[in-house]
Amino acid sequence: MTNLLSIHTIRFIVLLLIQVLLLSHVNFLGNINPYPYILFVLLFPVKNNRLIFILLSFLLGLLIDMFLDSGGIHAAATATIAFIRPAALKFSFGAVYEHNAIKFGNVDFGQRITYITILVLIHHFILFLLEIFNFSKILLVLKNTLFSSIFTILLCVLITIIFGGTNKK
Amino acid sequence: MQQIVNFILRNKTFLLFALLLFISVMLTIQSHSYHRSRLINSANFLSGGLYNTSNSISEYFDLKNQNKLLQEDNKRLKSILYNTQQRKDSSYIDSTNYNKKYKFTAAQVIRNSYAATNNILLLNKGDNDSIKQDFGVVSSKGIIGIVEKTNRNYATVLSILNTTSSISAKLKKTPHFGSLKWNGNSPNTIQLSEIPKIATVAKGDTVITSGRSAIFPKGIPVGTISNFKLDKAENYYEIDIMLFNDMTSIEHVYIIENKDAKIIENILKDND
User: Fold this and answer.
1) Residue A47 and residue B135: Cα distance in Å, rounded?
2) What is the distance between the alpha carbons of residues A67 and A87, in angstroms, rounded to a whole number?
3) Which of A94, A75, A69 is nearest to B43 (CA)?
4) I need a labelling partner for A19 at 20 to 30 A (CA). Which of A10, A148, B50, B124 fits?
5) How close, in Å, is residue A54 to chain B by CA atoms?
6) Model-level pTM greater than 0.95?
7) Complex ipTM above 0.90?
């Protein structure tokens, strides 16, 4: 248990630092940045206290907001995906996910990509909707969502593959 | 009563989520209203300190370019200094310290952003260096933005690459003025609107600050006109301006304090 706790604490801090020091300054093709800090939300244990999980996700988003001076957009998007994660889990891994406590290291690759894609798309859509905050620029929102999502999904998949070995608990 | 408690217990996850969503959306809305109210900002001990450390590492790699820029700036300033001295030499009175209207403070950008729709810079000067809200920020090449929030050691700056701010600017050739706004597209160009049709506008004309606000002195360079057209009502020009500053790489900036700002504000308030 303490091992699990320390892993998630370290992951929280490392993802936060990498995000604000490195990945928010990529600016690929002008303004495309990946936001793989949501891996914290994606990889959080399935069996959890949902209240604490949502609060932690909100806190992570708020810290990112503080560093990036972006109001509350990351907090809103991250809390939302934490809230709807059970639905996404059910959709991508089937209804049995609750009983046999899936491990992300050994699920089907396709299922994993579905799961990551759903949550990343929702997160980025809310993020850019709130950042641009203008319904007449909905095309810009969608464009940003698409490009950033591709970037984030690629990074998330790569990170889970590279560090997947150590995460088998 | 029992039922209410039961309802809260049953929906506690959703209620918590709704509360958090509400808080974050309120923070977002506050950050979109112009200029006064960003509650969660990076001018604090934690993020300011972290950015300061990371900047002290990364600035090392850009030293050559920044030195060159500073050298050019020094060269220009020296030429001005010696030229004016020569002219005034016969009856030179050192009155420069008596009524200096603008005070300059050098600062360093420790975090720069230019890809979002509302871009914020973080400077390594704050209250301790008597930096306050609404001071102007310029670089050696031209205008950068306006100080938004300060704490003891750090200050956030609302960059001109920001869809909420607007700064008064004018054409260098004629006194027609308009307001600078950014449409959020390219970090190299910003838009100047409200220049009346009667003004003569040509590509390549220089645009400078108008000095009509208490923030910037008159004559700080902004950029050159790269494109212009009349707006739909055909009364005003919509002008694209190519910035002199490369907003994607700024390191050394100057914060301008207008010592008459309070007086000017009071007069304007009285008129209202």
Assistant:
1) 52
2) 30
3) A69
4) B124
5) 7
6) no
7) no
